[in-house]
Specification:
Blueprint lengths: L7 E3 L7 E2 L11 E4 L1 H12 L4 H8 L3 H21 L2 E4 L4 E3 L9 H8 L2
Length: 115
């Protein structure tokens, strides 16, 4: 029996949770589901430009688990872009962290871009 998954901390629900290629009806598209923890990993690592160790700490998971989550997310996004599929963001074992603010790392990116 596998070990139960810990709930991953997610800052908040995304404002937009569905993307599809323009000009193709949604009914004609295959959907790929990106879980909320995969979305949060993409946000922290790629958008906020955090190192995996820092991002994992924010999500309350190990760095190795974070690496597996981000790898799965990257594969799903690549599949959507390359094969023209729809992307739906939903689900997953997550807990919303209402105590922390979601600053989206703007200060951190500015420091890295201008050393």
């Amino acid at each position: 029996m596998p070990r139960p998954k810990c709930r991953r901390h997610v800052c908040r629900m995304p404002d937009i949770n569905y993307f599809k290629p323009r000009g193709i009806p949604a009914a004609d598209l295959e959907e790929v589901v990106l879980s909320l923890d995969e979305y949060e990993a993409i946000r922290l690592a790629d958008y906020d430009a955090l190192y995996q160790e820092e991002a994992a700490a924010k999500m309350n998971i190990s760095r190795q688990t974070f690496g597996r989550i981000i790898e799965a997310a990257h594969k799903k996004i690549a599949d959507v872009l390359i094969n023209g599929k729809a992307l739906k963001i939903e689900g997953g074992e997550v807990a919303f962290d209402e105590t922390k603010t979601c600053d989206h790392g703007k200060e951190r990116r500015a420091k890295r871009d201008n050393p």
